[in-house]
Write a sequence for this structure.
């Protein structure tokens, strides 16, 4: 059996902020998730996971995000900054899914049509944004990220062995339908891996210890999302592994607000992650070692 795996779930702009703050808070208390055998990222988690796998410290990531947030606030304030992206179609998709089990391929094809036909920024602009975030360079051997074919609904786990450009792979994992364009890889177009699962925990089955960091945006969604995560974790347990999940506490969920793509909340969400990471460090240390 393989060693340890860290699963980092999706959650938009604020998911990246919370996960980064959480890991920085753990690190401040002497708990590091560095050196895992696998970092599996879905959507927002693919940005964080690829950085951690490349050896970037969570504290440095948090500082970079805070700097970017302050710069954006200084240059893009008021109505000219525009409203947060419209997530209504994606949220309707999630609300239509069964409580457990992955979405039927037919449902993934439906949301894939939204991905392929919506007016968004050009793919080139999206890829440039990810390079600005530092998602570039050689593929870390212990990193993988998830995506879904926007035409067929097929699920895919991108790994180093696929020989795919890291920026494209992570961008495809983050391609929220209706917000970002699907990303072309190997003559196919790919969308957010969260259209199969917000965490895809079952992909980590076969590891002795699996630590999942799941972004749950609202208390009203918590029972439903945790039910799906725990159902996926059955594959980990059945293979003989141990499983531990971390999700946002009530105080963090209050700070998230209603739109996880709202960049104006990035700094307070990072601060909540820092607070929560410090508070749970002892429990994570006991599990992770």
């Amino acid at each position: 059996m393989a060693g340890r795996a860290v699963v980092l779930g999706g959650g938009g702009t604020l998911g990246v902020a919370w996960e980064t703050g959480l890991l920085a808070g753990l690190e401040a208390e002497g708990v590091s998730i560095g050196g895992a055998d696998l970092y599996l990222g879905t959507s927002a988690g693919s940005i964080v996971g690829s950085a951690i796998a490349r050896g970037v410290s969570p504290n440095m990531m948090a500082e970079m995000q805070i700097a970017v947030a302050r710069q954006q606030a200084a240059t893009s304030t008021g109505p000219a900054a525009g409203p947060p992206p419209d997530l209504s179609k994606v949220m309707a998709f999630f609300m239509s899914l069964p409580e457990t089990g992955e979405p039927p391929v037919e449902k993934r094809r439906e949301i894939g049509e939204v991905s392929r036909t919506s007016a968004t920024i050009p793919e080139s602009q999206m890829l440039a944004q990810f390079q600005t975030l530092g998602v570039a360079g050689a593929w870390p051997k212990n990193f993988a990220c998830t995506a879904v074919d926007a035409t067929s609904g097929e699920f895919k786990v991108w790994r180093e062995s696929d020989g795919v450009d890291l920026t494209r792979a992570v961008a495809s994992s983050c391609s929220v339908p209706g917000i970002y364009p699907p990303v072309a890889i190997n003559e196919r177009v790919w969308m957010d891996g969260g259209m199969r699962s917000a965490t895809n925990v079952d992909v980590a089955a076969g590891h002795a210890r699996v630590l999942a960091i799941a972004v749950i945006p609202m208390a009203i969604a918590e029972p439903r999302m945790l039910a799906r995560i725990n159902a996926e974790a059955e594959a980990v347990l059945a293979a003989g592994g141990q499983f531990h999940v971390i999700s946002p506490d009530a105080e963090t969920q209050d700070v998230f607000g209603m739109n996880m793509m709202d960049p104006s909340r990035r700094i307070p969400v990072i601060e909540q992650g820092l607070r929560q990471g410090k508070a749970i460090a002892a429990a994570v240390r006991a599990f992770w070692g």
Remarks:
- Residues 266-288 form the longest helix (23 residues).
- The chain has a mean pLDDT of 92.
- The radius of gyration is 17 Å.
- The beta strands are 2-8, 38-41, 143-149, 155-158, 183-185, 188-192, 207-213, 242-246.
